[in-house]
Amino acid sequence: MTARGFDLWGVPYDGAANLGWPGCRDAPARVRQAPGWMAMRVQEGQVYSSDTQSLHAYPEDALRERGDVEVVAHDLMATLEACAAAVAGSVREDRLPLVIGGDDSLLYGCLKGFHDAHEGSIAILHFDAHLDLLDESRSQGRYSQSSGMRRALELERVSARNSIQVGVRNFNFPSSRRFIDEIGLAQLPASQFTRLGVEAEVKLIRARLAGADHVFWAFDIDVVDPAFAPGAGAHEPGGLTSRDVLDCVRLLAPLCEGFNIVEVNPLMDHHDMTSILAANLAFHMVVFGQQPAHPP
After folding, report:
1. What is the pTM of this model?
2. What's the domain range around 129?
3. pLDDT of residue 196
4. C-alpha closest to that of 152 among 122, 190, 192
5. Confidence bin at 145 (pLDDT 50/70/90)
6. How many independent structural domains does the chain possess?
7. Does residue 125 form part of some domain?
8. In a domain, 209, yes or no
9. Is the pLDDT of residue 23 over 50?
């Protein structure tokens, strides 16, 4: 079976981050600096994983650097369209898009491109502290960092009943709860994740994704507890650990055909620990996502 290849795109845009702290526009450049430490360990097309105690293939074209999407600083919709075009272009070249944002409004841009370039139903695997289901507000409009999941679920072939939100926690809008009930969207709160552990959670996630033709993984770095990822657009205590999310990527990468990491904020970071975590997540996706699998 031919190994899958990934395209790395940066989207240096945080114009929709009107809540929390701005600064995510600097993340693509900072995150790109970290994978060198991992890539330097590739020898003769292989890399050794201490976690799995195994050698894993890492061919020369496993990760193709595509540079930054041409964002428009004061035009959110133009930026979302540019992001969508980049993602769609990779899919049509039979590559898997791996996008580093940028703020979480990009969830919609990534899903639109993924949706437009694929046939069949699409499930969203959404790792986030927040629901991102706000329909509209006077302060944020309809296409904001708080509305990306809501807008993505409106795309024609996105299946809410195969999609799932993981790591959500603390408080949110009652209107979002009503919307969840209306469309049948599943959630695995961070509190439940802690009780069950990674392997049990992954089993539940796989069961939920089953039946969709394609899976896109939208990953907001604030799903990770601020103790492990202080460089985020917003802090929500009680999140997943860095070990949790690295293990999730290792186990779920074969199911996914697209991946984004958003809300990494170097201006709020401590010694680049969040950017380094994001780079590790991306590298794990490439290593463990080369061979496709299908939800059971």
Report:
1. 0.96
2. 6-288
3. 95
4. 122
5. confident
6. 1
7. yes
8. yes
9. yes
